[in-house]
Amino acid sequence: MMLIETLGKGGAKALAAGILTIGGWFAGAGLAQAVPAFAMQTGQPCSSCHVGGFGPQLTQFGREFKMNGYTMRTVGQWDVAPVSMMAVASYIRTQRDQDSPPAPHYSTNDNLTLDQASFFLAGGFGQHFGAFVQATYDGVGRAFSWDNLDLRAVTTTSLFGSNAVLGVSLNNSPTVTDPWNTLPAWGYPYTDSGVAPGPAASPQIAGGFAQNVIGLNGYMWWNGAVYSERGFYWSPDASFLNAMGVPPGETNQINGAAPYVRVAYQGNAGDHNFEVGAFGFFSD
Hints:
Number of helices: 4
Number of domains: 1
Order of helices and strands: EEEHHHEEEEEEEHEE
Radius of gyration: 20 Å
Shape: globular
Distance between the termini: 37 Å
Mean pLDDT: 86
Strand content: 35-45%
Number of strands: 12
């Protein structure tokens, strides 16, 4: 993906154009349809899961696929390898030079950079286990680290006479588990550049704990309408974070365990559906 931006004096984006998606698969024989490997596993185009054919917001089918632990498939377990790649590059020009270079090796204006290159292990393994694992090379910081992690175990049952999906997720970022993909881990502006000026303040849940915590969440999806998720997040020790490519001194720390909660109701209205919900993360 190539992001070309010009920014005015106030920092507001005035133009975003020239999007180029670069994807690769290690998939064996067959026509690659989309990135990530989920498209090949399900035999569906990107637009089946993602609104507008691109991410990250999910359609109703995409939400079902995620809540069922990425296990839906139309091909054999090893007919395709669950591996994908993604690259994001950008050229940033601001109307006025930045006060100082945004990072070492860059200028105060007209910066062309590889923002990130990511590698994914993404797919279902049998009927009850699935994974979305991302490792990323940061082209601005020039370092590798782990990125989004979502390991799931799921089962189905009947509850109060209706179908229910019960699942557990081991993950490393609050809100990365969200089935609507509209919360901070997947929210607007979707992608940006580390050399572009941006706001200095944001809620802690908007990336403040991403990739520097470990969470264990349980969730239920009942009757295709009611979603409930509860979990806790902990801060790993410094040696673990170092091994994952995350400098411990640059992370937010949690004292004890931080609860996370998400509730939502999904309704249908003709050919459309809607969701009303809330979420909370309580860190100390």
